[in-house]
Amino acid sequence: MVALSPIIVVAHWHAGAAAMDQVIALVADLKRQSLAEPGCLGYEVFRGLDGGPLLLIERYADEAAVEAHRASTHYRELVQGRIIPLLEHRTVELLQQRGAS
User: Is pTM beyond 0.85 here?
Assistant: First the structure.
């Protein structure tokens, strides 16, 4: 049996200029708490030099770890309760390496 590669979550979060500083502050707390999860292998946050949306790249051991993350208290409180209401738009992709590496 071949072990599957980790799940990569790629999220683009678009917030207006007035809300972006608040979103960035909340994401710092979200990142800290997410990295403490046993299935979280990495959590990076990027923003273009010209401003624009946030790009979050998260790595989880498997699908169960992604589901545990989404069910966590900090995800529900920070993302669903506080961050999403500040966003104008967001997209989220779940990726996994396939084929030859």
Answer: yes
